[in-house]
Amino acid sequence: MFKLEDKVVAKEVSASILKLILSATPGGAFINEYIEIRSRIKQERFNNFVSQLSEYLTNNKIEANANLKMEDFGDLFESVLRRVTATKSAEKHSRFRDILLNFMENAEVEIDEAEIFLDLANDLNDIAVIILKHHKILKREFSEKNTRLYKLEQNLPVLNGKVVREMALKEKGVANDFDVVNLQRLDTDLTIKKLKVEIKELDAIKMPSFYNLDEYTFLYYKQILLSKGLLKDNFAGNTIGGSPFIYMTITEFGEKFIDFILRA
Prior knowledge:
2 strands
């Protein structure tokens, strides 16, 4: 019967034989040294990641969801470790850590979906993730602020009319609510100005300068995110003067992805 010990011994023997072959091959010493250096690098990345994960778990209260399947978590953990040893990116290591922690806490994400998110997190660099993150903010806040602005601007003429009427009553020396109504008008006017500034700042998210990128590099990243189903292009193709890759919004899949790979 085949035993695990036999498999381990066979692996060690194979490694030894490989070293012997390399040592007898022209250039083999260099290759052998390279393999050993790469092994040390991967081991160091592995150790640093496990240390980082342990430190985070020690300093933060993490509670695994009651429905967490340990076999699924183990599979995801192995997948994460394979990617950890293959990259030196500290940003990706932090993302991999967050993916593990979010999977522990989130009962709604299945292992297959988590693996898809892990692949995407591994493929995308930090700039792409930042662009996607800000498009999520844009989608969430832009609509809400525009709705508030529209309602306030619709109400402003009504308040102006009330101010005029209350002013007339005040000048006649009769009871009036001028001070209250005028304060409402001033507050509304101030809020409208603030919202317009905030909306303008949000609009900047769609510009390459917001990310310190040139136009072509920004376009490249948007096309990458589009190809992976994380952004969508709202260009209809028949807009007069319109261009593709300008009015882009995050997809529902993109929102779920960014929520899963980044901890709040």
